[in-house]
Amino acid sequence: MMDLSIQNLSMSYGKATIFSGLNAELHSGGLIGLLGPNGAGKTTLLKILTTLQKPTRGEVLVNGTSLLSHPKAMQKVLGYLPQQVPYFPNLTAMEYLNYVAGMKGMRPHQALEQSQSLLESLHLSDTANKRLKEFSGGMRQRVGIAATLLNDPQIIIADEPSTGLDPEERVTLRNLLAELANDHLVLLSTHIVSDIEAIAGQILVLQSGHFLYQGTPGELIKRSVGDVWEYPISADWTSPVIVKQLNQPTTSLIQRPDGIRIREISKRPPLPQAQSVTPNLEEAYLGLLKGVIQS
């Protein structure tokens, strides 16, 4: 059982405050999703949690031990996947994993066994002896994920792990992380709600320097009931009025058997014919960011 305690955490660069007074309690036993728009400070927060950066103020505890005073308390149990996965282009996938395993202090036979298993799980067995410079971006990302999971880290932190992955690869990654989250602390940062919609047990929403929401996806959806509306699109959907409406960040188009309809997030019915509909997590999240749903 792993626990991460974020206590009054603040980070500034000169006069610019990235976030201030963050508090959260994170536990193993269910995937934790960190959501927020680009530039919200998610990557900075993850760098602090992974001991790559020190905060301006505050504390982070791993199982009660300070990361600031004892960074190795985190480093020895951590698997970290950054946005930009480091790799050596002239190494094969297997050579790269063996190199990372050596850095983690793994024994050669253990490294080989785990590397083969991870490459198979991530559908890379056929390219294990291919040089990384010949890999696509999505394939290199999967090799990076395998490297992160070597030596069975008890805390797994991934920053935008689905970058460069095609839909099938994203499903494979989601299933793998969901399975690991049963008995590991898994924190996944993303601005794409679909990355965590089906697998997160807890979500944190970071915006404008503070957490707008901490809790379950279901509770956030419940808060947005009555704030999502659906109505049929006008026959002339290219009209300036409709085009302007579709450009709003709180609307989306959906295809129904009876034609195309608009879904809109609003405190009031946007049109007399609009019907209240059950929100999904992405709509609840967007409503929260736009202030339609209260934090």
From TrEMBL:
Residues 4-233 form the ABC transporter domain. GO terms for molecular function: ATP binding; ATP hydrolysis activity. Transmembrane segments: none annotated. Belongs to the ABC transporter superfamily. PANTHER family: ABC TRANSPORTER, ATP-BINDING PROTEIN (PTHR43335). InterPro entries: AAA+_ATPase (IPR003593), ABC_transporter-like_ATP-bd (IPR003439), ABC_transporter-like_CS (IPR017871), P-loop_NTPase (IPR027417). It holds the Pfam family ABC_tran. Keywords: ATP-binding, Nucleotide-binding, Transport. This is ABC transporter ATP-binding protein.
